[in-house]
């Protein structure tokens, strides 16, 4: 039971207690809540029975009733031909009370109609609330309940029935329009005010919950979008390292120019590709091995075309190429000479991948100044991350050296400058994104969100990264 339900039950108990305390001949009180239009679901909220002749009351819903939760809809208890007539239907439709001071003559006694048994003496009083107070502007679009013949009820009334009070009396103790009924009517108005207050509290509570859910959902969506955006920004480092890869290729081109007899990865990979191509026809009978040979050929082509760092190339060789060659040679018959050639090629490839880092070769590139060669080799094999962004300034300065034999070096310099501006702005973007998300989450100003976040961990939080490292996480 939520807080509003508890307050409603407490309010209804107070009304029943007051009525039973004021009316010595009253024995039992029950209050039914009538739901919103057009369903008008009638649900018994609580009942109180007087214990003995004192003021002690026993609370609860001990008896079986069609009006116990989830109750009855308007279509079930309204008047209709060839069906039971219920006092509840009269009170709700007519917005008027029903007094059964003579059980034998009560035409709306359900017990009498079903089993022929007389019911207690009772009075039922509808609790009225102004339609405008309850529905406000929504009243213009509200769907009214209709009677059995399809005629809308309450259209010409200023009120709706929010609840019904039923009070039982001792036999022969109630007469219509006597003092007891007037007291019940007066207290029904008080209950109507209380119900309206509860309705407003419930509406406010529901609106707050919906707003909180919408705000949290907005946080989720915004966090997701910003995370994806910043992940895409993370490819800036890939673009930067691709530009450095061009610088690396140009350096290795200078080494090949200075030392034509050096063995590079290109010819070795071409020979390995030829050896695979020769063996592919023998693999056609087995799809698995054919797939292995095709994959190995593709990876050799990618290695030949990619300006990888030596360490990256070595990992590629160790984790992709060498294991596949080993598996392939177990299936395809190869002469000892072929096996030795492949083993030799793989060993030479490992050396060739690092030839660009050879400092002895760099010192003997005669067509370039020695200090330029040393600087070139130190920059060409750098991998740029958020921890060494300073290297971008060094590369840009290096590209400004007159006579540097690098094609399109001015374009490279511009591209690196643009990328540097973006990558240096990423930490600020992340920090600002965190502030916006936290501000939206807590509904306060950007100046206070850091203080709020320190005390209240929440679902839409970005992890802390070193400056420039991109990433976001969202825990569902």
Overall pLDDT: 83
Output the strand order for the largest sheet. Answer: 3-2-1-6-5-4
Number of domains: 3
Strand segment count: 6
Count of runs of 4 or more consecutive helical residues: 16
> Architecture of the largest domain, CATH level 2?
2-Layer Sandwich
What fraction of the residues are assigned to beta strands by DSSP?
5-15%
What is the CATH C level class of the largest domain, in words?
A: Alpha Beta
Distance between the termini: 27 Å
The secondary-structure element order is HEEEHHEHEHEHHHHHHHHHHH
* Fourth CATH level, the homologous superfamily of the largest domain: GAF domain
Sum up the overall morphology in one term: elongated
Measured as a percent range, the helix fraction is 55-70%
Radius of gyration: 43 Å
**In terms of per-residue confidence, which ranges show pLDDT below 50 for 5 or more consecutive residues?**
446-476
What name does CATH use for the topology of the largest domain?
Beta-Lactamase
